[in-house]
Structure formats: C-alpha cells, structure tokens
Write the structure tokens for this entry.
Amino acid sequence: MGKYVIKRISLMLMTLLIITLMCFILIRMLPLAELPPGDPHTAVIEARREAAGYNKPYLVQFGIFMKDVFTEWNWGLSDVLYFGQDVSVIFASKLPATVMVNLYAILFSIPIGVALGIFAALKKNTWIDHTISTLTMVCISVPSFVYAFIIQYFLAYKLGWVPFLMKSGNDFFSWPMFVSMIPAVLSLSMGVIAGFTRTTRAELTEVLTSEFMLLARTKGLTKAQATLRHAMKNCMVVVLPAIFGEFIAIMSGSLIIERIFSVPGVGSLYINSINARDYPMFTMLTMFYTSIGLLASIVVDISYGFIDPRIRMGSKK
C-alpha cells in the first residue's frame, strides 16, 4: 500500500508539472494585454515583465516561474486585474466563498442522494425505482447552468423567495448570506444528488442479489437486518470514496455557476484572468484546479484500501 501511495503521488506531481507547462506556454503565446500609454503604472508593469523573463523563450520563463514558487513561494503579481497585488493573497480572499457554496451543496446532496439510491434499490423493478432512475438520468444529463436559470426564474422571479445574485461580503454564516447562496447551492446539488443516487442504487442492487445475502437470510436475519448489517457495509466500499472525493473537490467550485450568481469565488476569478490575459493569476489558478482534480482522484483510490481491508492495491501475492 505504501509503494502504491508513493507511486500515485509521484505520477500526480509529474502530471501536474506537464499540465502546468502546457497551460503556461499556451497562455504565454497569447499577446500581452495592452497597457495604457502614458500611465505611470505602465513602466512598472513593463519592468516587472522584463524581470519575469517575458522576452525570453517559454521554457526559460517557466523555469523562472517554478524557481520563484519553490524558493520564495512567489506566484507573481497581478498585471491587469489587481495591479501590483500578490496573486496568492487575492486567491486566498476569493477561496472562502467558493468553499462555502460547495460545502453547503455537498452537505445537502449526500444524504438525499444516498437515501434515494437505497430506496430505489430496495424497490427494484417497481414504478418507484423506474421513476427515480429516470429522474436521475435526466438530472445527470442536464447541465448545471440550466438548473440555474430554472431556479432563478421560479424561486427568484416568480416566487421572490431568494435573490437573483449572491450577497456580497464575508459574513458567510449570516442568514441573509445563506439565503442568497441557496440558488447556487441548489444548482450545484442537482447533479451531485443524481450521481450519488445512481452509484448507491447500482452498488446496493448488486449486493442485495449476492450469495452471502441469501446465506444471511437463511440464518434467520430479516431483510432489514441483512440490509443494514451486511448489504450497506459492502455498498459503502464504493459510496464512501466517492464522498471523500466530493469533499476534496469542494474547493474547485463551478466556473459557470459562480459566474451566473455572481459568487465572489475562484471560479469568476479564473474566467476574468483568462479574459484579461493576467498571466500570473491564470497560471496559479490552473495549478490549483489541476491539483484539486488529481488529489481527489488519489484520495478516492487510496480510500478503497482503508475502507475495505480485503483491498490491498499494489501488493504482490
């Protein structure tokens, strides 16, 4: 198991480096954002670009960037969006909004999705199962921004229960802020609920038809006892890693949903950095999003071995 973890982390770092290099070169191939002539800040920005090696080959620029990150934890200064400000400080100020919106969405989605999956599995091949399965496929297939428009139309426009956009500020635990986050939370939750419902239903259905479940029933256990003591335990081997992966991914946010509801998070910051061609900001956020995705994948894979002792990845017989 230890060798497997080390191998996966090594591959993750290699993948992160390759993806970062590719994105770094692609963004640097774009023309630099034009600076207003005569502005006193223009000379400062041009001097900073010169120090960062903007006039040198791309690989040299990348080497300078990685050296500053690993030796000084210097991700650079924003050239366009936030003139002269440290991009890491700006990123840290935007991250809480993204985390809170996604955290509420996950805490709302997991119990509902797992419960619907269990209910559908226990009612297999009935109209309840068919209805839940059909709605699950619809929810998975429809993009999240479609839910955003529907929620805005009914809850915000027709009923007036919630505002169209998220409230500004950092009081994330206040009631007005929570209410303003509801549309974004619901939009993000629909796909997550459907995903957990499908996974739980598929795994529990397979476990309920296993031979050991028949043996448990022949020993005198009721259907409810056999389901709770044996079926759910085996079902969670697949469901729990998916939950762990979702919690790791809460920091990644949603670019489109944050844009629609004006969530002051990293998603909007990422889009703005691309449009403004703010190289330091874009590069840091690219590494962040890539790291979150790779880390979530590793956590899911490794958690299998800890949840089920029978699984020993990377071991040799």
Notes: The CA atoms of residues 33 and 277 lie 6 Å apart.
